[in-house]
Amino acid sequence: DGGITQSPKYLFRKEGQNVTLSCEQNLNHDAMYWYRQDPGQGLRLIYYSQIVNDFQKGDIAEGYSVSREKKESFPLTVTSAQKNPTAFYLCASCSKDLSTDTQYFGPGTRLTVL
Amino acid sequence: GDSVTQMEGPVTLSEEAFLTINCTYTATGYPSLFWYVQYPGEGLQLLLKATKADDKGSNKGFEATYRKETTSFHLEKGSVQVSDSAVYFCALSSGGYQKVTFGTGTKLQVIP
Q1: How would you write chain A as a 3-class SS string?
Q2: Is B95 close to A97, i.e. CB distance below 8 A?
Q3: pLDDT tens-digit readout, A14-24
């Protein structure tokens, strides 16, 4: 089955630690995205990548980093510089044009900082 | 910049009631409009979309019409079921790879 997988589903981190969230897709999509979801705030874009070895900052990139070494993978690192990292993180992908092609979402990772 | 405003929830309805969730938008040009649904603990799924003015998107009994004159894309369903309980997001895209702009979501609870 084609789709997007995210792991782990739940993640706990101590303050001051970096943590990496995994996102893999087998849809052969060019573009991949990371969103953060907080209660009552909808989704906010962290980073996106249109092509391998290239990525762009979204609206709330501070304290996060990404890489895109393979087409199917787009891991997100939450660094210790992110002041309030507890949130639900969603990865998504799209074939080409967001206005005409469907954006598919993974099941999400819930990160809690202890 | 682009923005989406949708009615605050939660919305609580009895089974078989009529549903309307309001959505209005601000965007440059002619965006595509979307409704996504999120079930508890899951990611978002595309429910329906419309890519130009007067288009009607429909899926699983839900409908929404792209109204350029009122910059609206209200979601409707004639008879809701308990299984429709979820959070609904209105969204728009002005095209390209850049991003989708989401509303804050409206939680729907349908009671038997």
Answers
A1: CCCEEEECCEEEECCCCCEEEEEEECCCCCEEEEEEECCCCCEEEEEEEEECCEEEECCCCCCEEECCCECCECCEEECCCCCCCCEEEEEEEECCCCCCCCEEECCCEEEEEC
A2: yes
A3: 988 999 999 99
